[in-house]
Amino acid sequence: MIAADVPSLPAGDSPDLILVPATPHERIESIKLNSVAWKGPLNLESYIAREDHLYNQRLTRENLTCWILVDRNEPEGERTILSSCETYRKKALLAHNGTVEDVKTHGIGSVYCRPEFRGKGYAKRMLEELSRRLDTWQMEKESRGQSLFTILFSDIGKKFYAQFGWRPFQSSHMSLPAVAREVLNGAVENSKTRALLAEDIKNSMCDDVTLAKVRECMQIASQSPGAKIAIIPDFDHFIWHWAREEFYTEKLLAHRAPPTIKGAGDDQARVYCAWNRNFGETPENNVLYILRWVYDDPKSAAEEQVLIEAMAGILRRAQLEAHEWNMSKVEFWNPSPLLEKAVSLLDPKAELVHREESSIASLRWTGADQGLGKNVTWLLNEKFTWC
Ligand SMILES: CC(C)(COP(=O)(O)OP(=O)(O)OC[C@H]1O[C@@H](n2cnc3c(N)ncnc32)[C@H](O)[C@@H]1OP(=O)(O)O)[C@@H](O)C(=O)NCCC(=O)NCCS
């Protein structure tokens, strides 16, 4: 139920409050409520359609739960939604003590409380309840029977979620402006960079060999002290991000064919990236995000130089793609030192930005309870993990 009498609302710490998975109807009601904050350039109908479209992707189908905080005394179908959020179960890897384990985790998103209900402790209560529920939620088939960690990306700074255990992790990025073809002056045409279609990303970034390398890296990482985790960068993640961009282009740029170039690569240097286009309220907020980079560590200084130049070529191609889709910039998260060097080839003044407010990668670790130590390292913490 959307309407509610504000003065008769329960307190945030009331024993009557309960966190439950929303019914399909309640899920739509909670989407309607949070549309005020997140529909961006879409109208309400399109925003609901977007959420349904994303819900039906392989990554999220069967893995997404919409949670609502309600008063247990209200009958299903008539419950007032006090606060809401979504969780997405994901495949992950855990490296510890010389072994690599396949595990499952949850990503949390769309944490919301409608404006007239704010400040009453509903979001806090929801997150306290959620942190406990996620320990075992949808984990029946997992060998440990429970999760070891959950993640979220905070848009409200580093403190709020930390009080419930979601600690801030490395949240940096670099960006480069969109650049028109004329300005590039043949730089893209003359480089070895190749535009990648979805199928190419599948073959060069999500193939068995590449995913086996992720496991090998985790295996090596498992030999040093402390647990390490990574979300598996499988093809379903990229499809999900592309479903999002294709939805927007269909709604907002109906005159144009949907974007088919989903990344760029250099076969000689063996470096590849996948991207997606994000549409904000205004063109300045349109960003081409590089979702993930794939390359092997160079074995010599000469190899390193070749790799850095290839990365720079790919970034140029991304800048051009951003321009062609009316994006203001290209951005990628937690760049490696090699990527930082590639950026400085293109713009020596570009800086690594450490975010303090938005998209703060946050992780709640419960592995200590399972003998895995107090600390955890988050590997492959790139944009593809965002939901
Ligand atoms: C953030 C939000 C969910 C909080 O809901 P709420 O029910 O009012 O929260 P609670 O009453 O449980 O807790 C209030 C606390 O929220 C924190 N908070 C709320 N908005 C915040 C913001 N924009 N930045 C930082 N902290 C914020 C405050 O620290 C406040 O703490 P205090 O009690 O010490 O003053 C709500 O403001 C909202 O829906 N905002 C719009 C959507 C959004 O930004 N969601 C978060 C996405 S990561």
Automatic annotation (TrEMBL):
The lineage of its organism: Eukaryota, Fungi, Dikarya, Ascomycota, Pezizomycotina. Residues 17-195 form the N-acetyltransferase domain. Gene3D superfamilies: 3.40.630.30. Pfam families: Acetyltransf_7 (PF13508), GNAT_LYC1-like (PF22998). CDD domains: NAT_SF. SUPFAM superfamilies: Acyl-CoA N-acyltransferases (Nat). One of its GO terms (molecular function) is acyltransferase activity, transferring groups other than amino-acyl groups. It comes from Penicillium argentinense. This is N-acetyltransferase domain-containing protein.
